[in-house]
Amino acid sequence: MSRRNPLKLEWIMNNVTVRTISGVAFIIVMVACLMFNKFLFAGMMILIMSVMLVEFYGITMGHSYTFSKVLAILAGIFLFGVLFAEATYHIPIRFIALAIVPVFIVMINSLYVKDKEEYGKFSNIYTGLLYIAVPIALSNLIAFDKAGNFSGNLLLCFFIIIWCSDVGAFAFGISLGKRFPKKLFPTVSPKKTWVGFIGGVILSVVAAFVLYEVGLLRFPLIHSLILALIMSVAGVYGDLYESQWKRVFGVKDSGNIIPGHGGLLDRFDSTLMAMPFGAIYLAIFDLL
């Protein structure tokens, strides 16, 4: 009968403790920024977007073309700022077109780069903007109503649904994965199973029902449940999409900014696809 290694067990317990403390602290900060003030919300989202862009460009481009990457991050911040100003101060919708100007500046700057040996890496700059900056900027449409009033309730509901989907997938995968081992997408993420996927969907739908019952999710019940289903599925694809990037470039974590959790891109990979799909669904039925 084999004995467990006490040092390994201690390391696992310490790692779980670190992950729990850092995770709870991060959630508290996020909730505070979402609930108290629109400028705290904007600052938090800009910080999250900027760090994720830094991580993505670090994975895909390394230390190449630093100035161009800085320009791209500024372009993402500008896009967020324009949508924030439109939602808050009702600037004419046509001014949103200004958000494309920094992108063109990035393109023009690429012409002046002397070292063209790795010029193909510039495509990752535009991928990062579309993949990260656009979804984060669109959070303004969720955080503000049509009258320009700020409320973080709906965005908080979005995050709760996404978090519950992740927790459900993890819990079902750990507890039932050996009994139902069929893999969801083995070439991209070998640890993910179909039973974990189903668990994520179930818990996200349950979360939406609870949010509806307590009055935080203020849509008809059927729309609330469908919203959770769509976001859960989209979140899985968001997770897989980031996993593929890391697999291609041989990276385990996108960063190490959150102790025990890796980078922000690792934490928000599901959100980057789930949040826009959720917003699109609500917009189609004029619920946003």
Task: Characterize the structure shown.
The protein has 288 residues and is an all-alpha fold. The protein has 2 domains: 37-149, no CATH class; 152-288, no CATH class. 71% of the residues lie in helices and 3% in strands. The chain is built from 11 helices and 2 strands, in the order αααααααββαααα. It has helices at residues 6-36, 38-61, 66-89, 100-111, 122-137, 139-143, 153-176, 194-213, 221-249, 264-268, 271-284; strands at 183-185, 189-193. It has a two-stranded antiparallel sheet. Strand 1 (183-185) and strand 2 form a beta hairpin. The longest helix has 31 residues, at 6-36. The termini are far apart.
Overall geometry: globular
Uncertain ranges: 9-13
Rg to the nearest angstrom? 20 Å
Query: Order of SSEs, N→C?
Result: HHHHHHHEEHHHH
> How do the strands line up in the largest sheet?
1-2
Strand content: under 5%
Mean pLDDT: 88
Oligomerization: single chain
Structural class: mainly alpha
Task: Compile the SSE list and pairings.
Layout: H1 6-36, H2 38-61, H3 66-89, H4 100-111, H5 122-137, H6 139-143, H7 153-176, E1 183-185, E2 189-193, H8 194-213, H9 221-249, H10 264-268, H11 271-284
Antiparallel strand pairs: 1-2
Keywords:
2 domains; globular; mainly alpha; 11 helices; two-stranded antiparallel ribbon; single chain; 288 residues; 2 strands
Give the gist of this structure:
The protein is mainly α and 288 residues long. It has helices at 6-36, 38-61, 66-89, 100-111, 122-137, 139-143, 153-176, 194-213, 221-249, 264-268, 271-284, and strands at 183-185, 189-193. The chain has a two-stranded antiparallel ribbon.
